[in-house]
Design brief:
- The protein is mainly alpha-helical.
- Strand 1 and strand 2 form a beta hairpin.
Length: about 200
């Protein structure tokens, strides 16, 4: 049992370590509103109060339990697979994964801050941008692997699965009535992940 857990952890140590940190901080912040507001990405606070740490800590907190669970499932599904692939194919796989994750995170956070810093009431929480960056990075390095299966159609390759996710996301974006969904975070987080993956792997 312990050896199985260790083997799983070592297959993607940075990803699982991040998940553990996000779980601890998010659950604490869901119970402690003061902690949540201290860590959430608040663009006005980043610029006016020089609270630069928020560019990273906004990834550690979530708006609610469902938001947290969805992001953790996505992190487990795509982040762990990306790191494991990089570990098997490069000399510094875990470091490369961390760079891709942080590039996605900072791309999303910096763009959001640049655009919304004059809005004192604006804030953003969650790992969505970082996870989209990792998802697209995984699509780039493993385009031909089967991502999932659909009835009648059968196995869907990763590259097409990624396109399906993006199209579904775009449809959701245009049809959604939820004003608090920060689609910019998703787009620029994905862009950061694509660029970092391309630079590190050449794919």
């Amino acid at each position: 049992m312990i050896s199985t857990i260790m083997k799983t952890f070592l297959s993607a140590p940075i990803c699982y370590g991040l998940m553990a940190i996000i779980t601890l901080v998010s659950l604490c912040a869901l119970k402690d509103q003061k902690l949540f507001f201290h860590l959430v990405l608040h663009p006005n606070g980043v610029i006016e109060s020089k609270e630069y740490y928020r560019l990273i800590t906004g990834d550690l907190v979530h708006n609610d339990l469902i938001h947290f669970l969805i992001n953790q499932i996505m992190m487990f599904t795509f982040g762990a697979r990306l790191e494991n692939h990089l570990l098997l194919t490069t000399n510094q796989g875990s470091l490369s994964f961390l760079i891709i994750y942080l590039s996605s995170c900072l791309s999303a956070s910096l763009f959001t801050t640049t655009r919304h810093w004059r809005e004192p009431d604006y804030s953003n929480a969650g790992t969505s941008g970082s996870i989209i960056g990792c998802m697209l990075g995984y699509v780039m390095v493993q385009p031909d692997i089967i991502a999932f299966y659909l009835p009648v159609v059968g196995g869907i390759k990763n590259i097409y699965g990624g396109l399906i996710c993006i199209i579904a996301y775009m449809i959701y974006q245009f049809r959604s009535d939820r004003a608090n969904i920060n689609h910019e975070v998703h787009f620029f987080g994905g862009l950061g992940g694509i660029l970092a993956t391309w630079i590190l792997t050449g794919n």
